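Thread: quick sanity check before group meeting

JM: Hey all, I'm pulling together slides for Thursday and realized we never actually wrote out the predicted structure for the chain we discussed last week. Dropping the sequence here so it's in one place. If anyone has concerns about the input, flag it before I start.
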Amino acid sequence: MKRRIFFESKNVRNLFFNKVLSSYNFIKWNDIVVRLDVPRVMLSKYRNGFLTIPEPVFKRFTKNFNEKDLNYFYSKIIYLNEDWGRIKGGKSTYLRHKQIFDNGRKIANDRIRERAMRFDINLPLTKELSYFVGLFIGDGFTNKYRNYYLLQFTGDKRKEREFYSKIISNMTLNLFNISPVIKEEVRTNAIRVNFYSLNLYKLIIDRFKIKAGRKSKDVLIPEEILRADSDILLSCIAGIYDAEGCFYFDERTNYKSPYPVIALHMNNPKLITQISEVFIKDKIKHSFTSNYSTLYIYGKESVQDFLYKVKLLNPKYAEKIDLLKKI
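JM (edit): ok, ran it. Output follows.
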Protein backbone atom coordinates (compact mmCIF):
# COMPACT_ATOMS: atom_id res chain seq x y z
CA MET A 1 0.00 0.00 0.00
CA LYS A 2 1.28 3.46 -0.89
CA ARG A 3 2.32 5.67 1.96
CA ARG A 4 2.16 9.38 2.62
CA ILE A 5 4.23 11.46 5.00
CA PHE A 6 3.68 14.36 7.35
CA PHE A 7 5.89 16.05 9.90
CA GLU A 8 5.55 15.99 13.65
CA SER A 9 5.61 19.81 13.92
CA LYS A 10 5.41 22.98 11.88
CA ASN A 11 9.00 23.87 12.79
CA VAL A 12 10.30 20.56 11.44
CA ARG A 13 8.27 21.00 8.26
CA ASN A 14 9.66 24.50 7.69
CA LEU A 15 13.18 23.31 8.38
CA PHE A 16 12.69 20.45 5.92
CA PHE A 17 11.62 22.63 3.00
CA ASN A 18 14.43 25.09 3.62
CA LYS A 19 16.79 22.12 3.53
CA VAL A 20 15.31 21.06 0.18
CA LEU A 21 16.19 24.50 -1.19
CA SER A 22 19.75 24.46 0.10
CA SER A 23 20.48 20.85 -0.86
CA TYR A 24 19.65 21.62 -4.50
CA ASN A 25 21.17 25.11 -4.35
CA PHE A 26 17.77 26.54 -5.24
CA ILE A 27 17.02 30.19 -4.47
CA LYS A 28 13.24 30.43 -4.89
CA TRP A 29 10.32 28.09 -4.19
CA ASN A 30 9.52 28.27 -7.88
CA ASP A 31 12.80 26.44 -8.54
CA ILE A 32 11.26 23.38 -6.85
CA VAL A 33 8.18 23.72 -9.05
CA VAL A 34 10.24 23.90 -12.24
CA ARG A 35 13.25 21.69 -11.46
CA LEU A 36 11.54 18.95 -9.42
CA ASP A 37 8.27 18.97 -11.40
CA VAL A 38 6.02 19.65 -8.42
CA PRO A 39 2.80 21.59 -9.16
CA ARG A 40 2.81 25.01 -7.52
CA VAL A 41 -0.50 24.46 -5.72
CA MET A 42 0.62 21.08 -4.37
CA LEU A 43 3.94 22.48 -3.14
CA SER A 44 2.10 25.23 -1.27
CA LYS A 45 -0.14 22.67 0.42
CA TYR A 46 2.82 20.45 1.32
CA ARG A 47 4.68 23.41 2.81
CA ASN A 48 1.68 24.57 4.84
CA GLY A 49 0.76 21.11 6.11
CA PHE A 50 -2.60 20.99 4.32
CA LEU A 51 -1.59 17.84 2.44
CA THR A 52 0.60 14.90 3.31
CA ILE A 53 3.50 14.22 0.96
CA PRO A 54 3.48 11.09 -1.22
CA GLU A 55 6.52 8.95 -0.41
CA PRO A 56 7.98 9.14 -3.97
CA VAL A 57 7.78 12.96 -3.84
CA PHE A 58 9.39 12.96 -0.39
CA LYS A 59 12.27 10.86 -1.76
CA ARG A 60 12.65 13.29 -4.64
CA PHE A 61 12.85 16.17 -2.16
CA THR A 62 15.53 14.39 -0.11
CA LYS A 63 17.64 13.10 -3.00
CA ASN A 64 20.53 15.50 -2.23
CA PHE A 65 20.32 15.32 1.56
CA ASN A 66 23.37 14.12 3.43
CA GLU A 67 23.12 11.16 5.77
CA LYS A 68 22.88 13.28 8.88
CA ASP A 69 19.94 15.28 7.55
CA LEU A 70 18.23 12.14 6.29
CA ASN A 71 18.52 10.54 9.70
CA TYR A 72 17.17 13.64 11.38
CA PHE A 73 14.11 14.09 9.16
CA TYR A 74 13.26 10.38 9.01
CA SER A 75 13.09 10.53 12.81
CA LYS A 76 10.67 13.47 12.60
CA ILE A 77 8.07 12.13 10.14
CA ILE A 78 4.98 9.97 10.41
CA TYR A 79 3.96 7.47 7.73
CA LEU A 80 0.29 7.26 6.85
CA ASN A 81 -1.51 4.93 4.49
CA GLU A 82 -2.67 6.75 1.40
CA ASP A 83 -6.36 6.24 2.21
CA TRP A 84 -6.03 8.36 5.33
CA GLY A 85 -6.28 11.27 2.90
CA ARG A 86 -5.83 14.91 3.67
CA ILE A 87 -4.64 16.11 7.04
CA LYS A 88 -6.69 18.97 8.48
CA GLY A 89 -4.07 20.23 10.87
CA GLY A 90 -1.12 18.22 12.14
CA LYS A 91 -1.86 18.61 15.84
CA SER A 92 -5.38 17.22 15.79
CA THR A 93 -4.30 14.20 13.75
CA TYR A 94 -1.40 13.57 16.09
CA LEU A 95 -3.69 13.70 19.13
CA ARG A 96 -6.15 11.24 17.59
CA HIS A 97 -3.37 8.74 16.89
CA LYS A 98 -0.90 9.73 19.59
CA GLN A 99 0.05 6.22 20.72
CA ILE A 100 0.71 5.01 17.16
CA PHE A 101 2.81 8.05 16.35
CA ASP A 102 4.75 7.97 19.60
CA ASN A 103 5.57 4.29 19.20
CA GLY A 104 6.71 4.82 15.63
CA ARG A 105 8.81 7.81 16.60
CA LYS A 106 10.44 5.91 19.46
CA ILE A 107 11.41 3.05 17.14
CA ALA A 108 12.85 5.51 14.59
CA ASN A 109 14.81 7.43 17.24
CA ASP A 110 16.18 4.21 18.73
CA ARG A 111 17.42 3.16 15.31
CA ILE A 112 19.05 6.54 14.72
CA ARG A 113 20.83 6.37 18.07
CA GLU A 114 22.05 2.86 17.34
CA ARG A 115 23.55 4.01 14.06
CA ALA A 116 25.07 7.17 15.50
CA MET A 117 28.84 7.21 15.45
CA ARG A 118 30.22 7.74 18.94
CA PHE A 119 33.74 8.03 20.26
CA ASP A 120 35.40 8.49 23.61
CA ILE A 121 36.08 12.21 24.16
CA ASN A 122 38.98 11.18 26.39
CA LEU A 123 40.85 9.52 23.54
CA PRO A 124 44.65 9.88 23.76
CA LEU A 125 46.13 13.27 22.94
CA THR A 126 48.05 12.73 19.71
CA LYS A 127 49.62 15.10 17.20
CA GLU A 128 46.59 14.57 14.97
CA LEU A 129 44.11 15.45 17.71
CA SER A 130 46.18 18.44 18.79
CA TYR A 131 46.30 19.66 15.17
CA PHE A 132 42.51 19.41 14.90
CA VAL A 133 42.10 21.49 18.07
CA GLY A 134 44.51 24.07 16.65
CA LEU A 135 42.54 24.23 13.42
CA PHE A 136 39.42 24.82 15.50
CA ILE A 137 41.14 27.58 17.50
CA GLY A 138 42.07 29.26 14.23
CA ASP A 139 38.82 28.99 12.32
CA GLY A 140 36.32 26.80 14.15
CA PHE A 141 32.83 27.42 15.46
CA THR A 142 30.58 25.21 17.54
CA ASN A 143 27.13 25.52 19.06
CA LYS A 144 23.91 23.68 19.84
CA TYR A 145 20.71 24.23 17.85
CA ARG A 146 17.75 22.34 19.32
CA ASN A 147 18.79 18.73 18.79
CA TYR A 148 21.72 19.61 16.54
CA TYR A 149 25.30 19.85 17.77
CA LEU A 150 27.30 21.64 15.10
CA LEU A 151 31.03 22.15 14.67
CA GLN A 152 31.94 24.16 11.59
CA PHE A 153 34.98 25.37 9.67
CA THR A 154 34.82 27.96 6.89
CA GLY A 155 37.36 28.02 4.10
CA ASP A 156 38.01 29.31 0.60
CA LYS A 157 36.71 26.83 -1.96
CA ARG A 158 39.21 28.06 -4.55
CA LYS A 159 42.21 27.07 -2.41
CA GLU A 160 40.98 24.77 0.35
CA ARG A 161 38.47 22.36 -1.19
CA GLU A 162 40.99 19.51 -1.25
CA PHE A 163 42.30 20.40 2.21
CA TYR A 164 38.90 19.89 3.83
CA SER A 165 37.42 17.21 1.55
CA LYS A 166 40.49 14.96 1.74
CA ILE A 167 43.01 15.85 4.44
CA ILE A 168 40.64 16.96 7.19
CA SER A 169 37.94 14.44 6.24
CA ASN A 170 40.44 11.59 6.48
CA MET A 171 41.77 12.96 9.76
CA THR A 172 38.35 13.15 11.43
CA LEU A 173 37.40 9.74 10.09
CA ASN A 174 40.55 8.34 11.69
CA LEU A 175 40.13 10.25 14.95
CA PHE A 176 36.38 10.20 15.52
CA ASN A 177 34.91 7.94 12.82
CA ILE A 178 33.08 11.04 11.55
CA SER A 179 33.15 12.69 8.12
CA PRO A 180 32.04 16.28 7.53
CA VAL A 181 29.16 17.52 5.44
CA ILE A 182 30.73 19.98 3.01
CA LYS A 183 28.71 22.73 1.35
CA GLU A 184 30.00 25.26 -1.16
CA GLU A 185 28.40 28.69 -1.20
CA VAL A 186 26.87 29.55 -4.56
CA ARG A 187 27.35 33.31 -4.46
CA THR A 188 30.67 33.48 -2.61
CA ASN A 189 33.97 31.61 -2.54
CA ALA A 190 33.23 30.15 0.89
CA ILE A 191 33.15 26.47 1.72
CA ARG A 192 31.30 25.32 4.88
CA VAL A 193 32.62 22.20 6.57
CA ASN A 194 30.01 20.92 9.04
CA PHE A 195 30.27 18.18 11.66
CA TYR A 196 27.09 17.11 13.46
CA SER A 197 28.14 15.31 16.61
CA LEU A 198 27.31 15.62 20.30
CA ASN A 199 30.59 13.97 21.24
CA LEU A 200 32.64 16.32 19.08
CA TYR A 201 30.83 19.23 20.74
CA LYS A 202 31.68 17.78 24.17
CA LEU A 203 35.30 17.22 23.13
CA ILE A 204 35.73 20.93 22.41
CA ILE A 205 33.57 22.31 25.22
CA ASP A 206 34.11 19.87 28.08
CA ARG A 207 37.56 18.42 27.51
CA PHE A 208 39.44 21.35 25.97
CA LYS A 209 37.38 24.08 27.69
CA ILE A 210 36.75 26.21 24.60
CA LYS A 211 33.49 28.11 24.84
CA ALA A 212 30.60 27.46 22.46
CA GLY A 213 29.45 30.08 20.01
CA ARG A 214 31.60 32.60 18.23
CA LYS A 215 35.02 32.35 19.78
CA SER A 216 36.01 35.36 21.83
CA LYS A 217 39.23 37.27 21.26
CA ASP A 218 40.81 35.52 24.23
CA VAL A 219 40.55 31.87 23.14
CA LEU A 220 43.76 30.08 24.12
CA ILE A 221 45.63 26.87 23.50
CA PRO A 222 44.17 24.42 26.07
CA GLU A 223 46.23 23.64 29.15
CA GLU A 224 46.27 19.93 28.32
CA ILE A 225 48.05 20.69 25.04
CA LEU A 226 50.38 23.26 26.60
CA ARG A 227 51.57 20.59 29.04
CA ALA A 228 52.14 18.02 26.28
CA ASP A 229 55.37 17.16 24.47
CA SER A 230 56.78 19.72 22.06
CA ASP A 231 55.76 17.84 18.91
CA ILE A 232 52.13 17.70 20.08
CA LEU A 233 52.12 21.39 21.02
CA LEU A 234 53.66 22.38 17.69
CA SER A 235 51.00 20.31 15.90
CA CYS A 236 48.35 22.47 17.56
CA ILE A 237 50.14 25.58 16.34
CA ALA A 238 50.32 24.06 12.85
CA GLY A 239 46.53 23.77 12.90
CA ILE A 240 46.22 27.42 13.89
CA TYR A 241 48.52 28.48 11.04
CA ASP A 242 46.72 26.26 8.52
CA ALA A 243 43.50 28.05 9.44
CA GLU A 244 44.68 31.63 9.78
CA GLY A 245 48.28 31.88 8.59
CA CYS A 246 49.50 33.73 5.51
CA PHE A 247 52.66 33.10 3.44
CA TYR A 248 53.84 35.81 1.05
CA PHE A 249 56.97 37.29 -0.49
CA ASP A 250 57.94 40.91 0.04
CA GLU A 251 59.16 42.06 -3.37
CA ARG A 252 60.19 45.61 -2.55
CA THR A 253 63.28 46.79 -4.41
CA ASN A 254 65.42 47.06 -1.28
CA TYR A 255 65.52 43.24 -1.20
CA LYS A 256 67.89 41.45 -3.58
CA SER A 257 65.35 38.65 -4.05
CA PRO A 258 61.76 38.08 -2.92
CA TYR A 259 61.78 38.07 0.87
CA PRO A 260 59.64 35.30 2.41
CA VAL A 261 57.26 36.13 5.26
CA ILE A 262 54.84 33.95 7.20
CA ALA A 263 52.32 35.99 9.17
CA LEU A 264 49.65 35.03 11.68
CA HIS A 265 47.04 37.71 12.38
CA MET A 266 44.59 36.78 15.15
CA ASN A 267 43.71 40.04 16.95
CA ASN A 268 44.16 37.98 20.11
CA PRO A 269 47.15 39.23 22.17
CA LYS A 270 46.97 36.39 24.70
CA LEU A 271 47.11 33.72 21.99
CA ILE A 272 49.91 35.48 20.12
CA THR A 273 51.84 35.67 23.39
CA GLN A 274 51.29 31.94 23.99
CA ILE A 275 52.61 31.07 20.54
CA SER A 276 55.57 33.41 20.96
CA GLU A 277 56.51 31.68 24.21
CA VAL A 278 56.39 28.30 22.47
CA PHE A 279 58.57 29.63 19.64
CA ILE A 280 61.12 31.01 22.12
CA LYS A 281 61.32 27.60 23.78
CA ASP A 282 61.73 25.84 20.43
CA LYS A 283 64.14 28.48 19.10
CA ILE A 284 61.93 29.61 16.23
CA LYS A 285 62.92 33.18 15.32
CA HIS A 286 59.94 35.53 15.13
CA SER A 287 58.62 39.00 15.87
CA PHE A 288 55.22 40.55 16.46
CA THR A 289 53.45 43.88 16.26
CA SER A 290 53.41 46.18 19.26
CA ASN A 291 49.76 45.39 20.01
CA TYR A 292 50.39 41.63 19.82
CA SER A 293 47.85 41.15 17.04
CA THR A 294 50.18 39.71 14.40
CA LEU A 295 53.17 37.39 14.59
CA TYR A 296 55.79 37.28 11.82
CA ILE A 297 58.45 34.82 10.64
CA TYR A 298 60.90 36.70 8.40
CA GLY A 299 63.59 35.56 5.97
CA LYS A 300 64.41 32.33 4.16
CA GLU A 301 66.40 30.72 6.96
CA SER A 302 63.81 31.46 9.65
CA VAL A 303 60.88 30.41 7.43
CA GLN A 304 62.60 27.15 6.54
CA ASP A 305 63.27 26.45 10.22
CA PHE A 306 59.61 27.20 11.01
CA LEU A 307 58.39 24.88 8.24
CA TYR A 308 60.69 22.12 9.47
CA LYS A 309 59.38 22.32 13.03
CA VAL A 310 55.74 23.27 12.40
CA LYS A 311 54.27 20.73 9.99
CA LEU A 312 51.72 22.61 7.89
CA LEU A 313 49.19 20.48 5.97
CA ASN A 314 47.15 23.05 4.08
CA PRO A 315 47.91 22.98 0.32
CA LYS A 316 47.32 26.74 0.19
CA TYR A 317 51.01 27.08 1.13
CA ALA A 318 52.34 24.66 -1.49
CA GLU A 319 53.05 27.17 -4.24
CA LYS A 320 54.91 29.51 -1.90
CA ILE A 321 56.94 26.65 -0.41
CA ASP A 322 57.99 25.57 -3.90
CA LEU A 323 59.04 29.12 -4.69
CA LEU A 324 61.00 29.31 -1.43
CA LYS A 325 63.16 26.43 -2.61
CA LYS A 326 64.13 28.33 -5.73
CA ILE A 327 65.36 31.55 -4.16
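AS: nice. The longest strand covers residues 148-156. Residues 3-115 form one domain.
JM: adding both to the slides.
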